[in-house]
């Protein structure tokens, strides 16, 4: 696979950054506006997938190797669980929002909801990595069956 | 009733999943079923001319209850879409592996197990 | 320390390790073993620590009608101990057994994900949360069935995936119906709405969906075809988990919880459960007799034994809703639940034995075995105990629970049910005598001369379960029974009064 035509490549080079930035914007305002971890993860993964479609598989894998994606995948969930367990340690409540009780903030301001943005970031990392991995794995016929489908499930429970 | 459309869609999906020979088509049938249920859930929470369910300090609770849409089904649908994505991914991965092993997508030729 | 604080750890620990293992143990295989065993051991310890305590845990501090709550009562207590016990023995077994496969860290990751899902199903007090955990557990199990990656495994996994996903879709449909009819997702709130507001006919739809979909998950007879393919295809510790606890946590537990505590039992549902139970019992056992593949035979017996459990529970529900004696209903449900606990012990022991034979002798066809008596004394001993147990021979645990179900059937005035139960028990005995005869007695084939007993760590797992098999009859001794089994029965008997227990706010 050598990628697509020059037009696609050029447009991709310009657009990919904006897609990525848009994903980050959604992650950060996830607790204020529609969006959040899952939507953002898909958008960020899309920027990589676009790269892969335009430039070919090897080019994208050089940017984000599947090994690194696997690690991001696991660490996203771990970060999420650590936040949940910290809630248990600090306030005695699993998933407890221990930051908000200390720094309440003003509603509809960026820093107003304690641990929720952190969880959103964790989910975002996780979803981005696993959607990218799913795409890599399904895009090639001869590859070892992976369990990405299952790992996606855990993410979902965190969505709420 | 508009809900009956969901049943029709669900039955179409079930029919597709149960009668098709091609395993990819079976998976598509599953997806149709899932979407029928998601549609049903969204319709449950739908209200014509509803407002967004955000409570502020100034909101009147009774008026809020009377006008806002139900946010819960939407949360459920998002969750179930994600679950559906996971299941579909696994199913497609299995299809690919099956094709690799058997060289066919035809379910009637994939018959190593006697049962 | 407050024991309710430990409740979330039951889900958090397996989940944490499930994602920690692929991060650190990708290269070092031993580390994956150690961490996997540590995780299940930790979960087992917590399950034992919180045994006997009751509690409601509100996730994130949001109280029930809005937030999700986890409820710990007698039935969940019992299920938690069973699940974590079996999963601990299974990981112990798999640390040696899974050497034959590559990518052990993936195996442990999926395994722990499945355990987390099952613990969640048993704990949760919210309908949609139940669905989410159920899907986590079942998707992990689809992947685990296909873990070997051969022709049969992929085919079995695909079959399982399609049937079980149709089931899951139906569950979601049922949940949507209950939400539409009552306006709540919390089980206790649904129960109190139903008991105060009368029955909405829409709920009947939901119940039909629930019975069908949990029936698929529990492999009751009209919905069973996936089980005899999926369970033998998985690696042996996974078969033990699937047959031992997965079909119970996802199928039986969820079904009884929804029918008894949320919707409320009626005589019609009782009859449906009895009919399905008898059908599963009879069909499963007669299909099992003709099998020559050891694991496939065990899988058919799982269907049959699930029939016993559902029969006991359905009988109890029928007596309860038709206004019969409380004590008779209690006895029937006790029999069902006790048999559930016993079955998970002896069936996982049998599957682990079959794995042990497969590991050493390299076959699971009964006709190719024979004379393993001398070669594998320990496996033979444990396998004999488990076989006698499943067939209901007196000193072992299977006998006591079957006896209770039979007595309950007589008390309820259904002697023909008792007769069927005894008949099925005999056929089970015949088919397991066949197993013992062909696997361990007879002439040793030339090919199996070199067979040795399986490694020590696998043997330990077998011995733990065998001791339990022998000793679990003691649970019926007065004094012990009040602590362990009766709370589980009481949890179901209280019916939709469950709302008062799980919702102290109202």
Can you offer a commentary on this structure?
The complex is a heterotrimer of chains A (160), B (115) and C (506). With 160 residues, chain A is mostly helical. Chain A has one domain. In chain A, 71% of the residues lie in helices and 0% in strands. The longest helix of chain A has 26 residues. The radius of gyration of chain A is 18 Å and the shape is elongated. The model of chain B has no long low-confidence stretch (mean pLDDT 82). In chain B, helix 1 runs antiparallel to helix 2 and helix 2 runs antiparallel to helix 4. Chain B has one domain: Orthogonal Bundle (Helix Hairpins). With 115 residues, chain B is an all-alpha fold. Chain C is mainly alpha-helical and 506 residues long. Chain C has one domain. In chain C, helix 9 packs across helix 12. The longest helix of chain C is centred in the C-terminal third of the chain and has 36 residues. The model of chain C has no long low-confidence stretch (mean pLDDT 83). Chains in contact: A-B, A-C, B-C. Chains B and C meet through helix 1, helix 2 and helix 4 of B and helix 5, helix 6 and helix 9 of C.
Give a brief outline of the structure.
The complex is a heterotrimer of chains A (160), B (115) and C (506). Chain A has 160 residues and is mainly alpha-helical.
Query: Could you report the average pLDDT of chain A, rounded to the nearest whole number?
Result: 75
Low-pLDDT stretches of chain C are none
How many strand units of chain C? 2
Largest sheet of chain A: none
State Rg of chain A. 18 Å
Q: What level of helicity do the residues of chain C show?
A: over 70%
Number of separate helices of chain C: 21
Q: Domain count of chain A, please report it.
A: 1
User: Looking across the biggest beta sheet of chain C, what order are the strands in?
Assistant: 1-2
Rg estimate of chain C, integer Å: 22 Å
- Approximately what portion of the residues of chain C adopt beta-strand conformation? under 5%
| Largest interface in this structure | B-C, 34 and 34 residues
Could you give the order of the helices and strands of chain C?
Answer: HHEEHHHHHHHHHHHHHHHHHHH
Q: Which blocks of ≥5 consecutive residues of chain A have pLDDT under 50?
A: 141-160
Q: What oligomeric state do these chains adopt?
A: heterotrimer
